[in-house]
Amino acid sequence: MAPLFKAVYVDPSLAGSPAIERIREGVGDCLWQVCADFDAVIHEKTSYEADPCAAGKRILMIRPFQGRLVKACPGTANHICCGYQIINVMTNCPMDCSYCILQGYLNNPCVTVYPDFTRIFHEIEEIIAGQPHRLYRFGTGELGDSLVLDHIVGFAAAAITFFAAGKNAILELKTKSANVEHLLSLDHRGKTVVSWSLNTPRVIEEEEHLAATLHERLAAARRLTEAGYPVGFHFDPLILYPGWEADYQGVVDLLFAHIDPALIRWISLGGLRFPPSLKKVAQRRFPRTGIFTGELVPGADGKLRYLKPLRVELYRKMVSWLRAYDERLFIYLCMERQDVWERVFGSAPAGTAGLNQRFEAHVSRCLREAA
Three-state SS for 22? Predict the structure, then answer.
């Protein structure tokens, strides 16, 4: 089996730490180099590679993070956001989805890990101490998959233990992988939700390169529920193509063939959306993709989206298929305006604060029932 990475570059200040030794053992036989000039490596991979994004996925950088490691999700103006707190452990990942916004967003195409877990937990403690009456949701997986490298990086085990001991915060780990074996025996106390991005087999095969198959993801989710974990699912991005109705309904049916709906903490729905600059990058890297040629128009946030009537139809059908299995499922829309919520559900939360309040009430109730 070929090594996952061709080369690993480590900041001198981190050499010799336990986290570094664990990663070194995990990556196997590849070039390992202490590096004080990451910019030079990034410049080399950006300037001389035909596909810098693909080349960067074979390079691992381990370095300190400049700035705060835990931040509130910036959301989008005039769109309802769920009030998530983002933990920055890693940027980029070995998977290569055609629609990944990071292709046109990050200046550094290399997979990069920030291993200062103690500092992350200190920042989390500061946030939750500021409003101890609230119930916060923290999560990784915004700038890199939460689990695909975690057996090497080791953040999830430390974080699951940290959150299990706390009172007013929970953790979400988002993934497209099936890498869960190392989580099964941990004492999570119901404070960690592991969630999967789901899509149709066609989209996974054609657009989510190197990701786990749909069956692998759902089998992994079932294994975690058997270990007592609550789980979540994100149908995002939902992609329109001929036959999408039957395909997505089939995914919903398969989901509930694997998972008891009572064990699902939440399900999100989000239509395909991306900044205009991504289209050129993605079509150059994935010339056979057709997902960027649909009926897409600029939204108020500047991103290209499906026409509103198409999004509403898509969401309504997904909600009807999901709620046919359980009316009580907590379903929300990701980055949509109030009028879309109203047309899909008949009502809308009172902005971002209102959705966050719904989340807090729902999660608090689930924790009480599980106690």
Answer: helix
Type of residue numbered 267? I
Average pLDDT over residues 311-335: 97
- What is the phi-psi region of residue 81: left when phi exceeds 0, alpha when psi lies from -120 to 50, beta otherwise? beta
For residue 155, report the phi and psi dihedrals to the nearest 5 degrees: -70, -40
How many Å apart are CA 178 and CA 208, to the nearest integer?
A: 14
What is the per-residue pLDDT for 142?
86
CATH architecture of 68-370: Alpha-Beta Horseshoe (3.80)
Distance CA 75, CA 84 (A): 9
With residues binned 3-state (H G I as helix, E B as strand, rest as coil), the percentages for the chain, rounded to 5, are: 45, 20, 35
Residues 204-228: pLDDT tens digits? 999 999 999 999 999 999 999 999 9
Exposure b/e, 52-74, CB count within 10 A at least 16 = b: bbebbbbbbbbbebeeebbeebe
CB 334 within 8 A of CB 270: yes
The CA distance from 259 to 225, in Å, is: 8
- Kindly state the average pLDDT of the residues 252-261: 98
Residues 228, 186 contacting (CB under 8 angstroms): no
